[in-house]
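@channel sequence for tomorrow's demo:
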Amino acid sequence: MAVAVMNSRRVSTISSKSGECDGGPLPPPPLRATPIQRQSAQERLSDPELGPIPCAQDHSPEPPKRRRSNRGRHLKRLSSKWYPGNSGTERKRAGAPGPPPPTSEKGKRQRCKLIGDEAQACFASGKQRQRYVTKDGKCRVNLGHIQDKSRFLSDIFTTLVDLKYRWFLFVFTMCYIVTWVAFAEIYFLDAWLRDDVAHAHDPEWRPCFENVDGFLAALLLSVESQRTIGYGSRMVTANCMEGVVLIMAQSIVGSIIDALMVGCMFVKISRPQKRAQTLIFSKHCVISERDEQLCLLFRIGDLRESHMVDAKIRAKLIKSRQTKEGEFIPLEQSEINLGYDTGGDRLFLVEPQTITHIINESSPFWDIGAMALKRERFEIIVILEGIVEASGMTCQARTSYTEDEILWGHRFESCMSLEKGAFRVDYSAFDKTFEVQTSALSAKEKSEGKVQELF
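C-alpha cells (generated this afternoon):
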C-alpha cells in the first residue's frame, strides 16, 4: 500500500510539471486506478520512445459559425451565366465558374418558376409552379422597365382599345368634360371682355353671346353647341367674328372625339378574344399508340354553329435547357409538328377534332418514356387560329399542358353519335378518357428493340 501511494503522488507531480499537451492539459488519473494502471502511466511518462500521453478529447460545443449573407447571390434575371445544377459537375463540364444555386426559400421559389428545373425542388415546398400560359390562354409574362414609353402614344388607337373598360370610359368622359369646360371659359372670357355679362338682360344691347350672364351659362352654351342640342335661349350671334370661329372649332373637336370613341368602342366590343371563349380544348393530353406509332393527342372543339374559316393549329414546347458550352437558355421554344408537312394542321372545325402528334426521331418526346415523363419539366402551348365567319377578323385561342396533365396509356372517348338526318355531338364526353394497354417504353427504346429483333 505504501508503494502504491508513493507511485500515485509521483504521477500527479509529473503531470502537473509537464504542463499542457498538444490539445490541452493532461487528463487527471482515475480516482480508483489500480497499482498496475498507475505503474503503466509512470512508465509511459518516463519512456521518451513511447511519446506523450494522448490528450482527452474536448467535447465542448463549438461556437456557432456566422452565416454569410447570400443576398447578393440571389439572381433576379435570367441570364446565360446562371447554372441551375444542384452540384458543381455541370459547371465544371461547362468550363466556366458559376455561382452556387440559391439555398434560401426565396431562391428556390425563383428557380421553381423556370420550366426545366428539378421537379423535387419545386414540389417540396407544396406550391404549384408558375405556368407560362394559363389554361384559358392568358400569358403570364409581365413587361417591366420600359424606358421609351412614347411608343405607346404613337399608336394611340391600339393603346385606347387595350385599356380596361373602366379606364376606357374614364378617358373619354374626361375628354368631353375637359372640352366643355375649356370652351366655356373661352366663351365667358370673350363675353366678359365685350361687356355682354353686364348687359345680359338689356334689350337694346347687341351681344356676341346672348343670355350669357356667368360661367354656368357659358358652360351650358358650350354643352349645347358641342352636342347640337340648341334650346334657343343661349346662342352665338353674328355680332362678332370670334364667336363664329369658336363654334366651328368646337364642332370639329366634338366630331373627332365622337368618331374616336365610336370606333374604339366598336372594336373593343367586337374583339375576337370574345369569340375565342367558345373554342375549347381538352383538359388533358394523352399518349397512346395509333397505327403502331406512339402519339401525343389532345382534343379541340367549337361551341358555336358559325364556323371558323381557315382554322390552323400549331403547338410549341416551352422548356429550359443548358447547352454544351454552359449557356443556360430559359424558356426555350421549340416547334411540335402537328401535321404541317401533310396538311393535318389545317382543320375543318365542324365537330370536335383530335389533334395527333406522331412521336418520331424529330419529336422532342422521342426519348421520353412513362417513368421519365414524371421527372420532366416542360409546358406545351397550343395555339388555334382562324377567321371569324361573322366579322372576318382573325381569332386566336390558346391553352397549355404541363407534364402532369399528360396521361400515359389513355385514349379519348368518342363524343359523336348518329341521329336521324344529322350527327350529334355530346360535349359531356369531350374530356373523358379511358385506359388502354400501352408500353411504358419510349418511342426510341421501342425502335431500338425492333432493330435488335431484326438482327
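heads up for whoever presents: DSSP finds 13 helices and 16 strands in the chain.
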